[in-house]
Amino acid sequence: MVRPAPAQEGRVQKRAVAARHAADAALATDAALQSREFAWTPADFARVRKLIYEHAGISLHEGKQAMVYSRLARRLRETGHRSFREYLDWLESQDPREGGEWQEFVDALTTNLTAFFREPHHFELLAAHLRSKPAGTPWHAWCSAASTGEEPYSIAMTVVETLGPHAPFKLMASDIDMHALKKAAEGVYRLDSLKGLSAERLQRFFLRGKGANAGLARVKPELRRLIEFLQVNLVSDSWPFKEPFDFVFCRNVMIYFDAPTQRRVLERIHRVLKPGGLLFVGHAENFSEARDLFTLRGKTVYERR
What we know:
10 strands, alpha/beta, three-stranded antiparallel sheet, seven-stranded mixed sheet, single chain, 11 helices
C-alpha cells in the first residue's frame, strides 16, 4: 500500500478534523434550535426561504437559521400560532396585496443597519455632482433603501449645504419595511445616535427636544420638506415613478439578492435613471458584470450608460 507523503497526510488529517468540527457544530445548532419554544425543522426554514425570496427577493443562506427562528418566533407569539407550519399555512392564506401579516413577515426578516453619512466619500462625490450643473437646475433623486431615515436625511443635508435651502430638489425615499419608514418620516432620533454629526449640522438641521422629549432631536421642516417617503418593493412588477432620476442611492441592498435578482433590479434602475445619472452602491457591492448598463465612476459609484 502506498502511504501519502507527510505533508499530504497532514492536510488530509486537518481536513478530517475540520469536517468533524463542522458536523459537531451543525449537530449542536440543530439541538439548540429543537430545544427552543417552537419546533423548527429544515422544512420550515426551506419554506421561509422560498416565501421571502418570492415576496421580497431576499436570498437567505443556511447560516441565517437562528436569526430567522428568533425573529419569526415573535410573530408566532403575537399571532397566537403554536408552530411554524401553522403560522406559515395561515400566512399563505392571506392576500399579500393587503399588507397585513405579509408586511410583518417581511419587516421581521429585513435588516435596518444605517447611520448618518455612512460611507462619507459618497456624499463628497454627490456634492461635486450637484455643483457640476448650472445653478437653478432641478434635481430629482431616489434613495431606495431609506430604512429609518438616516441616509435620505444625509442626502438632503448635502443638497442644502451645496445648493442652498431653496434648491429645486426632490428626493423619493423608499423602503419595503413600513415600520422603518414610519420612523423615517417622523424624523425623530436619540441625540446619542447623532454623535457623528458636527455641532454645526446639529444646530442647522435639528431641533432639540425639551422636557419629556429631552435626549431627542427632530429633523427641521426645511429638510423634511425635500423628501417624500413611500413603500417600494424592489422586486415588485412595477415601481410608482413617473419621471427619471438624476441619481439613485441603492446601498447595501443587493447583497441580499442572488445574481439573477441583482441583474433584474439593476436593469430597472437603469431604466429610471437619466443617461449620465449616478448610482451609489454599498461598499461590499460590485457590479462589474453589468458593464453594458453602468460604468464605474468612482469608489462604489456607477454612471448610467
